[in-house]
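> call design_seq(struct)
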């Protein structure tokens, strides 16, 4: 029996809402009565995600298109959301990109993409919506970082650096905006999403092994014995955003089946 969260009337923005973990987070908030805006880059997948979330409905769901690598787009999308809902009470910075490239082969474009989407966009989106939260004297930001911020993964320096940056941002902003606004992070381990399927395919091609063998390589070493579901991450996000976590700020919650600390 899932926890009966109540976010009735809360205005929630979830970035990366069109695919992967984001739609699960959005759907969980909609089921809990929130008014949810899913932010995504691709209009077709975003529309589909909004339809699915809206069908879960206690609350409601809508979408806003935005390329998070583009600072001008973020400013426009932030303005659109504020015009539509009057502001946001809960911001979930979930969008992210990941690719496996050894540092010596990392182009400037790969480094820029990771830092822009995984870190700079988190700062810009938060900055755009934070003023309203501070004026209202309440709000919550949940940043989706990664266990890659806390462990050393080969061929992942650009991603790890961006996600560790998100943790630093979380700690500093939590201290800056308390007690009005709480700022926390969730660090997933391995979640079966498009990103993870891409990682498994890359390992399979790189090592000339089957997809199933590559999956085994990725998932072995998780003490709980399986990759996380998107709903596992959603549950942690909703907890941190909820009043049940009212004394929790500046924290990073690992949801990795024990892998991060193993
Ligand atoms: N899947 C995992 O195993 C895993 C592990 C640790 C952390 N994470 C983190 O969880 C978050 C969600 O990842 P996921 O697994 O759902 O990945 P995913 O690739 O399935 O989804 C990522 C989402 O981000 C969006 N996105 C990417 N670039 C964008 C851009 N320029 N503008 C707007 N949106 C953009 C995509 O459209 C997509 O909706 C990410 O921050 C990721 O780093 C995932």
């Amino acid at each position: 029996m899932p926890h009966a969260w109540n976010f009735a009337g809360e205005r929630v923005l979830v970035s990366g809402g069109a695919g992967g973990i984001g739609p699960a987070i959005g759907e969980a908030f909609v089921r809990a009565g929130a008014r949810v805006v899913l932010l995504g880059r691709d209009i077709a997948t975003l529309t589909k995600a909004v339809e699915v979330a809206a069908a879960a409905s206690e609350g409601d769901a809508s979408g806003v298109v935005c390329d998070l690598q583009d600072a001008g787009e973020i400013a426009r999308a932030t303005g659109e959301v504020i015009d539509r809902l009057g502001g946001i009470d809960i911001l979930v910075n979930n969008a992210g990109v990941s690719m496996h490239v050894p540092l010596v082969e990392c182009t400037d474009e790969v480094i820029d993409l990771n830092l822009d989407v995984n870190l700079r966009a988190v700062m810009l989106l938060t900055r755009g919506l934070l003023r309203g939260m501070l004026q209202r004297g309440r709000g919550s930001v949940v940043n989706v970082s990664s266990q890659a911020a806390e462990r050393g993964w080969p061929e992942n320096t650009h991603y790890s650096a961006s996600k560790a940056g998100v943790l630093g941002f979380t700690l500093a902003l939590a201290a800056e905006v308390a007690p009005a606004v709480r700022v926390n992070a969730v660090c997933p381990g391995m979640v079966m999403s498009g990103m993870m399927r891409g990682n498994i395919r890359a390992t399979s091609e790189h090592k000339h092994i089957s997809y199933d063998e590559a999956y085994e390589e990725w998932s072995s070493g998780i003490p709980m014995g399986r990759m996380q579901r998107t709903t596992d991450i959603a549950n942690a996000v909703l907890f941190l955003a909820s009043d049940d976590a009212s004394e929790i700020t500046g924290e990073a919650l690992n949801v990795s089946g024990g892998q991060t600390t193993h």
